[in-house]
Amino acid sequence: MRTNNIGVGFLIVILILTACNNVGENHLKENVENSSVHSENRDNKARIQNINTDLEVEHGWHIVPEGIKKIAISVEAENVESILFWIAPTGTETWGERTLIGYDIDGNDGWSIEWEFGDRIFHDHITIQALGSDYTTQACDTLNIHSVDKYQKE
């Protein structure tokens, strides 16, 4: 009786593994078919190539010195219809707390914003979201931004 239970258990494991393997093969086949269909569109994806600000960078953070009340951000991108500029607090799962700080819908003069923020104190992320001109792709990149006052420098 014990031999039959082991045999049945072994067959169940084999059936489950076979079923999972077939799903994986079918999924892989679909991905290959879809990628070949879209391969000619691959070059039209939205891409962010470079982001520049008028702030200094220290240890991966863009530093806002005391007395600065505006930031200029420019983006080099290709295959883009518009660019959104968002700010969100640092931490995990804070995308829902983001605020739109600007956008650019005309890349003829470059993609950029100048954001006047007043006396705001930063320890945030600015996310640049490039929406593709193909209306299906997007690219995102994030800047870390932090305020420093004269007492933190000493």
Describe this entry's structure for a reader:
This protein is α+β, with helices and mostly antiparallel strands and 154 residues long. It has 2 helices and 9 strands, in the order αβββββββββα. The strands form 2 sheets. Strands 2-3-9-8-5-6 form a 6-stranded mixed β-sheet. Strands 1-4-7 form a 3-stranded antiparallel β-sheet, with no helix packed on it.
Summarize the SSE layout with pairings:
Elements: H1 2-37, E1 47-53, E2 56-58, E3 61-65, E4 70-78, E5 80-89, E6 99-104, E7 111-116, E8 123-132, E9 138-148, H2 150-153
Parallel strand pairs: 3-9
Antiparallel strand pairs: 1-4, 2-3, 4-7, 5-6, 5-8, 8-9
Count every helix, treating DSSP H or I runs of 4 or more residues as helices: 2
Please provide the ordered H/E string of secondary-structure elements.
HEEEEEEEEEH
Approximate strand percentage: 35-45%
Q: What is the rounded Rg?
A: 25 Å
Portion of residues within helices: 25-40%
Distance between the ends: 80 Å
Average of per-residue pLDDT values: 81
Largest sheet: 6 strands, mixed
Shape: globular
* Extended strand count: 9
Biggest β-sheet: strands ordered side by side in the sheet: 2-3-9-8-5-6
Unreliable residue stretches? 19-41
Sheet/helix structural class: alpha+beta
